[in-house]
Amino acid sequence: MSRIEAKFRNRHGARALVIPFLNAGDPTFEVSLSAFEAAIANGAEVIEIGVPYSDPLADGPVIQASALRSLAAGFSLPRAFEVAKALRERTDAALIMFTYVNPLLQYGLEKFYADAKAVGVDGTIVPDLPSEESKDVLTVADKHGIDLVPLLAPTSGRERIATICENARGFVYCVSSLGVTGERAKMSDRLREMVSVCREHTDLPIGVGFGVRGPEQANDIASFADGVIVGSAYVRRVEAAIEKAAQTEANGLSSSVTEAVGQFTRELVQAVQ
């Protein structure tokens, strides 16, 4: 059993795990590292480390802006491994790298997964990797003992759900809404049904993400899924903390960001108990 799956299996009474997404390097290496640590310290046991990319097709404007801040500060894919290494030295939380096909191929599949394994990464999510074209990536990921977590769209039919679940590793990521990432007032009406169909085809945990705004939606998702994945709502708080720090001398940038991330994590974790 992988570390990711083990974290889901040992939830210590919680109905679901809270899985934060943050972009590495936003707004700096040190501040983003502190933000990840704040999420973990306040109850997150699985973390998504976003690898900043200039053309993030699956991401909405909030996460796109975050990636651009990171890239503007000189962040690059190799430094994401440094973030993962630093976190692994300080925590046993499960670490998942979120990246896109193009940077993955440019870096080299074998090198990427070997480097990921060396620094303690447990899984990867590649949102623009079609299931039909995932065999090569899955083979290399399996070779290095790293989970390739698949995504399922709300439009997926039963046959496609069965196929994707068959090749899933770690957990199955159910996308709550069509379109790019971003907070939404309402989840897809088909979401519960999709999770239910997934359970017919896999014993792996099921996580739900894309569009989760806050504790109320997290509480609802926790009633039928095993994980609640939150991205844009976290990144929006990071953005607000950056602006707050720029306007006041009383609270430094790192303190402002970690306080915002820590408080939001506590609220979400409480909501899924």
Brief synopsis:
The protein is built from twelve helices and nine strands.
Walk me through this protein's architecture.
The protein is α/β, with parallel strands linked by helices and 273 residues long. Helices cover 49% and strands 14% of the residues. The chain has a nine-stranded parallel sheet with strand order 5-4-3-2-1-9-8-7-6. It is globular, with a radius of gyration of 17 Å.
| Low-pLDDT regions | 179-185
Number of helical regions: 12
> What fraction of the residues are assigned to beta strands by DSSP?
5-15%
Mean pLDDT across the residues is: 92
Radius of gyration: 17 Å
- Structural class call reads alpha/beta
Order of helices and strands: HEHEHHEHHEHEEHEHEHEHH
Largest sheet: 9 strands, parallel
State the end-to-end CA separation: 24 Å
Number of strands: 9
What portion of residues is helical?
Answer: 40-55%
Shape: globular
Spatial order of the strands forming the largest sheet: 5-4-3-2-1-9-8-7-6
For this entry, give a set of tags.
273 residues; alpha/beta; 9 strands; 12 helices
Show the helix and strand layout:
Layout: H1 3-9, E1 17-23, H2 29-41, E2 46-50, H3 61-72, H4 77-90, E3 94-98, H5 101-107, H6 109-119, E4 123-125, H7 135-143, E5 147-149, E6 151-152, H8 158-166, E7 172-175, H9 191-201, E8 206-209, H10 215-221, E9 227-230, H11 232-247, H12 253-271
Parallel strand pairs: 1-2, 1-9, 2-3, 3-4, 4-5, 6-7, 7-8, 8-9
Helix pairs in contact: 2-4, 2-12, 4-6, 8-9, 10-12, 11-12
